[in-house]
Structures are given as C-alpha cells and as structure tokens.
Amino acid sequence: MQTLDHLFENNKAWAGRIRQQEPDFFVKLSRQQSPGYLWIGCADSRVPANEIVGLSPGELFVHRNVANIVVHTDLNCLSVMQFAVDILKVRHIIVCGHYGCSGVGAALRRDRLGLSDNWLRHVQDVRQKHEVAVARARSDSEAANRLCELNVIEQVANVCQTTIALDAWERGQELVVHGWIYGLKDGLLRDLNVTVASVEGTVPAYQAAIAALD
Description:
Blueprint: H1 5-21, H2 25-31, E1 37-42, H3 49-53, E2 60-65, H4 75-87, E3 92-98, H5 102-109, H6 116-129, H7 131-135, H8 140-160, H9 163-170, E4 176-182, E5 189-191, H10 202-213
Parallel strand pairs: 1-2, 1-3, 3-4
Antiparallel strand pairs: 4-5
C-alpha cells in the first residue's frame, strides 16, 4: 500500500524552511488566525491562492470549488462566507476565476462529464444569459476567456446578494467584494473592475463591468 511518504518528506522540508526563516512562526500561527481576506476561487490545482497573492498562512481564508461558483443553496460556500465575515471579520471577499478553466470550457462546449454537469449548469446559465457577448468572440479560446470573465462578474453579484453580505452592510460592517481573474500563462492577476462596497453599489458595478467587456 502506498503511503505517500514523499509528501510527508516535502512537508518536513517546508516546515523546516519556515522555521529557519522565522523560528516562532508556527507558535504564533497556532494561537489565532486573523485573515483580512476571503478568497473564493476555482479548485484547479494550478491556482494556489496564497502563493498567487504572496500571502502567508493565516492571512487568507479560502474556499474553492469547480469554476469558482457562488450558489445561494450551497451551504458549504455560504458557511465559509458567514464564518469569514461574521466571526473572522474579513474586510474583503475576492472572487477569482482563471483563464483556461476546465469547468467553464466544459459548460461552453456543453460537454457531458458526469455528476459535475449539474454543478456546471450554473456556468451554462451564465453563458445563456450573455449569449450575444460570448457569440461575438472571434475564436473558441476568446469565447472561453470571455465566459471565464463573465462568470466571475456573475459570482460577485451572487456574493453581494447573499444574506451574509447584505447583513454585514446593513450593520455598517466594512466589506468589499472584488472580481479578479488569473492568467495561467503568465501568472498575473487582472482586476475585472467589479468592486462592490455597499448594497447600492452592486448594480452599478455589475453593469459597468459587463459593459467594459463589450
């Protein structure tokens, strides 16, 4: 039976490097976590949240799923959001998609993958909602990139419409929702300019971001 010993060795080496750089790091980290950010991203193994933004463990609270989707019936995602906002008091929620997303590509092509088809139905809904914008793309890759961007913008709107965000804003808590996208080919983040800091700002930010893609 394989026990993945090489991963335990990697872990020892990693922990050793951290302790060498900062001897008290793990002691401090074990006492509390006080992240300022919640990252809602894709489960893709090529998109390591902490590393992309150069943050250490304890600085970024993370939720990941296939195609970075926020659904109002997904108690897993909503529980992470509620814990992050109400308990940890994060000030920023970052919805980050990425170009070359396999889930978005499958939804665009209407591929049949199995059980995950039901989850990716949400991305197909985004495609249908913005069918004209996606159809204007000059190539399949451009259409996929456009749908990746549109999906992020739609999920930002979904975050802003949750009871978690609405309640936080109603009680005057500082909370800003951002929509970003990551490039696998260059390792760079791009701001999709859909940044929302209030209930009133949701629709204008959404409309401006959609218009900017035209």
